[in-house]
Amino acid sequence: MTTGPISIAAYMRQCLTSPDGGYYTSQTQGRDQFGQKGDFITSPEISQVFGELLGIWLVAEWMAQGRISSGVELIEVGPGRGTLMDDMLRTVRNFRSLAASIASVYLVEASPALRDMQKRLLCGDAPMEEIDIGFRSTSKYSNLPVTWCEDIRFVPNDASKTPFIFAHEFFDALPIHAFQSVAPSPNEQPPTIPTPTGPIVISQPSSASRTPQWRELVVTPAPPPPPPPPRPPTPLLPPPPTTDFDTRKIPTPEFQLSISKASNPSSLVIPETSPRYKALKSTPGSVIEISPESQSYAAEFARRIGGSAIIIPSSSPRPASASPPPSSKSAIQTTTTTTTTKPHPSGAALILDYGPLSTIPTSTLRGIRSHRLVSPFSSPGLVDISADVDFVALAEAAINASPGVEVHGPVEQGDWLGAMGGRERVEQLLKGEEGEEKRKRVAGAWERLVERGGGGMGRLYKVMAIVPERGGRRRPVGFGGGVVGG
Fold first, then answer.
1. Is the pLDDT of residue 308 over 70?
2. Which pLDDT score, from 0 to 100, does residue 6 have?
3. Residue 287 contacts by C-beta under 8 Å, 6 or more apart in sequence?
């Protein structure tokens, strides 16, 4: 049992996915996190057009890659209710060649309650069976096998397959670490790290003690709130009215953020993984949020699309005219050859989430309950917790993981949906709707998706694609490119 401070990552993981009362994994009767009656509403729940446009993007990318005739896999991580995948499959069935090429659908889902919800929507009354990697049923669309896995690592990775991976509002819920740059203290002691055999003092060069250092922001119990002041006797006056925004109804946070007193393994390693983080270290007070788990997922996407680099050492005779190095005892020269685990990159990943276009997220941890922002440290397990996505970090992780991919974006969701023909699709739907109220609802839902004012979804949400490497010769649809036949 943990009794001391814990990282934000550990706190998020416990609150969101713990089998004992986690926000997403809880099976409380009648509880639904999504929709108007839940805590938040996602783009696929707002308008069917959203999922249809993702299906069209899949068709366009499949065409651009040569209309692959078999072995196509659809993978969605964090599928929510299953609405997005349902809209995509409904759209794709209109393109028979692509529909015939799809071998299977994989849903990466850790919540048993959400898995059951997805199964009812996608598979109806078809039976579900437990298999070695998770659960399997049959889609109501073309009898496709649908497989549920708790982690993408359990999804089979076959280099001969073509995976199209979709991640909508998935990365914002993955755990983050937060760090703050702290100015040096003249009396600061060398940091120690506890180990099973006792504390180990980390020796530092004298120059390190004169430069700012990263300290991790950790979650600690909040002090008890002060007692309320005594109420003056006013027998003739009624109590003041309360409203939905009455601060007296807001739960007092049970936890708070504190800064570590010394360096720990996370603060010594994680912020040193990118020049973007290192550049802020010299500015005391700088705060950065980093999600190693998000970067791992982006890297996994890239490896499935473009393969992993393999360095093969080989030996070749040294030319007779060449002089051997002074320490050489052999005329054999060692060289290396680089290849990949996937000789023919194929597939793509589409990531849609909220976060800045290029800057590092800072102090974005938030809680959401009943469609309102609340403290992420109140009512653990009952509040959705999320943080902005660092798209540049995802792009770096993908490119570093595979030589066979390139990244496009991020671009704002409003621009992307417009480039995909969203407005034309809405106009088509409006022509088929009868009744002014329904027409207003369809048009209003679209405007909500592309609205750029204030915190509008069209500006706040971003879209990024990972596709096979083409030397920048082809841009995907929605990112400046057009539909090509491959």
1. yes
2. 94
3. 178, 179, 180, 181, 217, 362, 363
Please tell me whether the overall predicted TM-score, pTM, comes out greater than 0.90 for this model: no
- Position 202 scores a pLDDT of 67
Count CA atoms closer than 13 A to 348's CA, side-chain side.
23
Tokens describing residue 127:
């039976």
User: What are the strands, taking DSSP E only, across 235-331?
Assistant: 255-259, 287-290, 309-317
Give which of 94, 92, 93, 103 is closest to 69, Cα–Cα: 103
* More confidently predicted of 349 and 237: 349
Whether 368 and 386 have beta carbons less than 8 Å apart is answered as yes
Q: From CA 468, how far away is CA 348, in angstroms rounded?
A: 7
Q: Tell me the one-letter amino acid at 346.
A: S
Torsion, Cα 71 76 81 84, to 10 degrees, reads -80
* Exposed/middle/buried for residue 51 (C-beta within 10 Å: 0-12, 13-18, 19+): buried
Asked whether residue 376 carries a pLDDT value surpassing 80, the answer given is yes
Q: Does residue 167 have a pLDDT over 70?
A: yes
Identify which has the larger pLDDT, 231 or 426. 426
**Residue range 142-146: average pLDDT?**
92
Q: Count of alpha carbons within 13 Å of 97, Cβ hemisphere only?
A: 9
Strands (E), 199-267: 200-201, 213-221, 255-259
Q: How far apart are CA 352 and CA 2, in angstroms?
A: 35
Cβ 88 vs Cβ 146: under 8 Å: no
